[in-house]
Amino acid sequence: MSGKFNLTVKVQKLLFSINHIKVKGVTIISYKQLDSTNEKAKMLIAEKMLKDKTVIVADEQLAGKGQYGSKWIAEPRKNLLMSIVFRPGFLRIDQQFFLNMAISLACRKAINNFTSEKVWIKWPNDLILQHKKIGGILIEQMITGQKIDYSIIGIGINVNQQNFPDALPRASSLLIIENKSFLIHDIFHELLSNSLNNYEQLQAQNYAEIKQDYLNHLLGFGKTQNYLWNDKRIKGMIEDIDNNGKLMLRIEDKVHSFGLKDIEWIPESKNL
Ligand code: BTN
Fold first, then answer.
1. How far is the CA of 272 from the centre of ligand 1 (A)?
2. pLDDT tens digit string along 132-182?
């Protein structure tokens, strides 16, 4: 996908001071500390204070949210914690997985600039390097009638964190993988530019291209892997993603469709 957006603003100081910048229709608000950038976005929406393409970024979250009601734990000032708010009125509710694909791809491409390792997307939107999760995306939609009124796209990238709690054995960071530290604002800048570009692709309805790109970077696509299904270890191969974002997995001679919590991938390191 072509890179049209080039944010000319200098965001170097942004992450370490409370700031409010508007550039090319994008509003960037940064905080030293928040409970959660996604929750802050919701508050601003409720106060009618938030426009399309607003980005909220924090140095630290006290109550970061992960998928399935989990917590997102990240050491202060060492990681990228942000939410991008779009108002994708052009997208039908049954097309919302395309937004997930577009943003996952934007994150993947951004991270790819900072590592020589292959960056994978684990369905639906985990960012994987060397079989470890270095980032995650939590998309919360606010729907009115049949329309997506607001999409709050929360992104957490583990950048300079060296140690993770024992409870997160599969977490890693760019620092651990590349053995050097990174400037968080560089990653922020790259990620935001890519997200805006891919959002434009979505607006242009380049659905087939987005999906093909997503499948090309999807961990386990066209490859037999181990999964946990109803407490049983099975072998399956991802054949496709349906329009609702469900995983189409070939198990023996049949293709099954799985929702978010229906199946668990067993990482390759554990496949040995
Ligand atoms: C996941 O569980 O994989 C999704 C993690 C998403 C974390 C980010 S950090 C910034 C934003 N604010 C939150 O509270 N969560 C998301």
1. 30
2. 999 999 999 999 888 899 999 999 999 999 999 999 999 999 999 999 999
DSSP states along 69-80: G-B----TTSSE
**Alpha-carbon separation of residue 219 from 84, 212, 230 (angstroms):** 25, 13, 21
SS3 229: strand
* Mutational test site, ligand 1, from 15, 31, 35, 38, max ligand atoms within 8 Å of CB: 38
Write down the H helix ranges in 71-119. Answer: 96-112
**Is the pTM of the predicted complex or chain greater than 0.85?**
yes
Sign of CA dihedral 176, 177, 179, 182: negative
Structure tokens at 196: 């805006």
Ligand 1 geometric centre to CA of 129 (Å): 18
Q: Residue 134: CB partners within 8 Å, gap ≥ 6?
A: 111, 127, 128, 157, 158, 171, 172, 173, 174, 177
Token code pair at residue 266: 């067993």
For helices 207-216 and 184-203, the axis angle rounded to 10 degrees is: 140
Q: State pLDDT tens for residues 41-90.
A: 999 999 988 989 999 999 999 999 999 899 999 999 999 999 999 999 99
Which one of 31, 81, 139 would you pick to mutate in the ligand 1 pocket, going by the greatest count of ligand atoms within 8 A of its CB?
A: 81
**70 Cα: distance to centroid of ligand 1 (angstroms):** 9
Distance 147 CA to ligand 1 centre (A): 24
- Contact indicator for 86, 148 with CB cutoff of 8 Å: no
